Amino acid sequence: MPRCSKRTRSGAAELVPGATALDDHHHHKRSRNTSSRRHSKSEDTSFSPKKCLTWFKEYTSVEEPDILGPEGMEKFCLDLGVDPENVVMLVIAYKMGAKQMGYFTQDEWLKGLTELQTDSVHKLQNKLEYLKSLLNDPHFFKAVYRYSYDFARDKEQRSLDTSTARALLTVLLPRWSLRPALGQFLEHCRRYRVVNRDQWSNILEFSRSVDRELSDYDTDGAWPVMLDEFVEWLRAERRDEAMPAAS
Predict the structure, then answer these.
(1) End-to-end CA separation in angstroms for the chain
(2) Across-strand partners of 160?
(3) DSSP symbol at 104
(4) Of residues 199, 198, 207, the one with CA closest to residue 141
(5) What does this protein do (predicted)?
(6) Which SS3 state, helix, strand or coil, does residue 194 take?
(7) How many CA atoms lie within 13 A of 10 on its CB side?
(8) Is the pTM of this model over 0.90?
(9) DSSP strand pairing (67-68 vs 104-105)
């Protein structure tokens, strides 16, 4: 923003009573404004696409300058001070619209970080708690949960393999009391090598509507067969555990 031109001060003291005091007042006011501007500049709340791209290049290679790959992702997480399996990384990927786990394209990077107005590690670190807090919104969480299915699956397969599904559930639903049991069921039930999209979506609904004791599970409900079988398996496991040991 251009500065205003300087005012002519010749004879000002004679023409305007108290002009010197007034000028001193304006001088102090300008000093305060200058100090305020310096403070704002130090906060650096502006966003620079050029700076954002320069930051992106810190994680790419000469061979693939437009792709941030696994090695770059490891460095990115290290710089952020965040474990790669932290759910906030999934939120960042969602904001970028990333298509494949372990990779960010230059376009995805710019899309997500422009929305977040973030062009440095420090700025993104300052937004990590905010990004985590977004998951408190059930609708946002559901969107991230469903997004994770395509994000994590092998693009040569239509479904998500069970080992990846178990790992994702650990990240997304760490406090769900039935998650360990479902993970055990998926690990040992040979019928299920993959989890399809409908099953994945229903696992979230199951976690929200069925209690730990399975007392409100509706066997006549429209649950996928996989979840019906999980409930049968878990009830059988609990019965066996409750039975007194043979003497």
Answers:
(1) 89
(2) 195
(3) E
(4) 207
(5) Neddylation of cullins play an essential role in the regulation of SCF-type complexes activity.
(6) strand
(7) 0
(8) no
(9) antiparallel
